[in-house]
Each structure stands twice: as C-alpha cells, then as structure tokens.
Amino acid sequence: MRLLVVLCFIALNCQAQDWDTIPVLPDHYNNKLEAFKKQKASTGKILFLGNSITEMGDFKTLLKDTTVVNRGIGGDITFGVIARIEEVTRFKPSKLFLLIGVNDLSKRIPENVILNNIFSIVSLIHAQSPKTKVYVQSILPVNPTVQKFPKGYDVGENARLINGQLANLTKRLNYTFVDMHKFFTDVEGNMDAKYTYDGLHLNAAGYALWMKILKDGKHL
Q1: How many Cβ atoms sit within 10 Å of the Cβ of residue 42?
Q2: What percentage of the chain has pLDDT greater than the value 70?
Q3: Full-model pTM
Q4: How far is the C-alpha of 215 from the C-alpha of 40, rounded, in Å?
Q5: Fewer CB atoms inside 10 A, N or C side of the chain?
Q6: Are the beta carbons of 93 and 111 closer than 8 angstroms?
Q7: H-assigned helices in the chain
Q8: 3 state SS of 176
Q9: Rounded to an integer, what is the distance from CA 17 to the centroid of its chain?
Q10: What's the pLDDT tens digit per position in 162-190?
C-alpha cells in the first residue's frame, strides 16, 4: 500500500505541472482549512469530504447525528483534497464519503488525471486511517438549462465517463462505489431540476435524496 501511495504521488507531481491545480476559490479554501485545523478531532465518526456540494450539506440535521464531520470546501478539486488529506484522516473516521471532481472538470483537467487523483485519495486514506471504510460517490449530473447555471460547468458527459471508471475499480482499490448519478438524472440525462437551484448545486430536496440513497444502500 505504501508503495502505491508513493507511486501515485510521483505521478501526480509530474502531471500537476501541466494544469492549474489551485482550487476554484483559493481564499475560501485556505480560510476553511485553517479553521478545520483548529478543531479538535473526535475519532470514529462519519465524515463527508468534497467541494461546495458537500460543504453546504447540513448532515448533522439530515442524519440526526451531531457527531458527523463535514470536510467540504467550496471550489475544491482533487489536488486540493490530496493536499489536505492529513487534516481529514486525523479523525480516523469509521466511514468516509467522498464526492469530488466536478470543479476539476470545469477547469478542463483531463479525466485520467482526475481518476488518478481520486485513486490516490483513496490510497492515502487507507494508508493513514486503515480502519476507515471509504465510499466514493459518483459525480452528480448537471443541468445547463436551469436559470443561473454556472459558466463552464456543462460537463455532464465527462462526469459519466469518470463515473463508469470509478464503478469498475472498486475491488482493486478497496472502496465502495455509490452511484448517485442515476437517481438525480431526468429523462434527458441532466440533473433533475427539482433537486437543484442552479443546475449544479443541490437544494433541500436534493440533499434529502442523497441521504435516502445512502440509507437505502445500507451505507449509513
């Protein structure tokens, strides 16, 4: 496992030179990370890790569990998660739910790089917190037809390609894949408008569906 992590980092260091690997919102990223580092870690809890879709989730209320840890940072990308992974694994969570990748796609980071980064995140979690059960959640669909849809995020087809690969490598990398994409998609293949307020981020109904998917799959 340690060798796999080292090899992943070597690959990442080579690839990162070709793309802008700064999160979409660097000031927000740095401020949130500094705040996180000041918080005392309670181990053995459920932890959600990702970008703004995760950050805006009120999981304590949704799950009626005040011990749930939210490690979402708006604008984050896979490189940003790797850079802050030790702050996450210090919690030694019982379960970790990862949702990341849509901001990478908006920055036109290639799919193979995003996949390699996600696999590196999983490997790092296993190495630093071996008892944590890792859940990799599919990138959600988007809907460019919704009013106020963010520019540059029409990446639905790219997300489907990544999700397909994530579903195929669960046994090799020892994680559980959660296909949320299919539950959020309308008949045209876009994010169902009833679950979003801008075609990218979730509304209350979207977060409720997310938790239902996890509970129905017996992941929670």
Answers
A1: 11
A2: 92
A3: 0.92
A4: 28
A5: N
A6: no
A7: 2-15, 26-37, 52-55, 59-62, 78-83, 85-89, 102-106, 111-128, 156-168, 170-173, 181-184, 204-216
A8: strand
A9: 22
A10: 999 999 999 989 999 999 999 999 999 99
Distance CA 23, CA 27 (A): 9
Q: How many residues does the chain have?
A: 220
Alpha-carbon gap, residue 153 to 142, rounded angstroms = 8
| CB contact at 8 A, 15 and 116 | yes
Distance CA 45, CA 114 (A): 27
* Burial (CB count <10 Å: 0-12, 13-18, 19+), residue 1: exposed
Q: What is the pLDDT of residues 63-102, one digit of tens each?
A: 999 999 999 999 999 999 999 999 999 999 999 999 999 9
